[in-house]
Design a protein that fits this description.
The chain has 4 helices and 8 strands, in the order H-H-E-H-E-E-E-E-H-E-E-E. By secondary structure, the protein is an alpha/beta fold. The strands form 2 sheets. It has a 4-stranded mixed beta sheet with strand order 1-4-3-2, covered by helices on one side. It has a 4-stranded mixed beta sheet with strand order 5-8-7-6, with helices on one face. The longest helix is centred in the C-terminal third of the chain and has 14 residues.
């Protein structure tokens, strides 16, 4: 049985400098016979305070509400970056448990910015708001320059510059 690694997995592996892991084995001729397009379109999270999270993602991330619905008991909100409404949305649902994420827990949502100065500006706003978790710092490739902010629900959000994706994307160093 052949293990299939798509060109996306191969290019991603090369970009990040690792060998792709495959969760199962699929015969190559089976995959090639199927015309399949796969794309991550959304992430959905339950939150304690829906309105506070919407305000946070508007203010810090520049996201807008692109869909909202209510059944009379609860609301569901879809948010997206301007111009990317049909590519990727963040679905926020009420009723989540409060998160107590430790400062050394690097689970997060990540947003790329245009410059180090933009990362510093977000960090200063977060410091003033009392929600800065990771002060701006430079890490080796592929991490880049980043800071971390805690949203009202306790989840971390990273703002970065110089990662190999998004604005400020850098080419991988030769020695990876």
């Amino acid at each position: 049985m052949n293990t299939v690694v798509t060109s996306y997995e191969t290019s991603t592996a090369a970009l990040w400098g690792y060998e792709p892991a495959v969760c199962g084995h699929v015969a190559q001729d089976e995959v090639q016979s199927q015309a399949m397009s796969l794309r991550l379109t959304h992430i959905a999270l339950h939150v304690c305070d829906l309105d506070a999270c919407v305000a946070f993602y508007r203010e810090f991330c520049g996201m807008n509400i692109v869909h909202e619905r209510s059944d009379g008991k609860s609301r569901v909100i879809w948010m997206a970056e301007p111009g990317r409404e049909r590519e990727f949305v963040f679905v926020i649902l009420p009723g989540g448990p409060e998160r107590a994420q430790a400062d050394n827990d690097y689970s997060h949502l990540g947003f790329a910015l245009d410059s180090r100065e933009a990362v510093d500006a977000v960090a200063e706003r977060a410091r003033a708001a009392g929600c800065l978790v990771w002060a701006p710092r430079q890490e080796p490739y592929p991490v880049g320059y980043y800071c971390g902010v805690r949203d009202p629900d306790g989840s971390f959000v990273e703002f970065s510059y110089g990662q190999p994706l998004g604005p400020g994307a850098e080419e991988p160093p030769e020695n990876i």
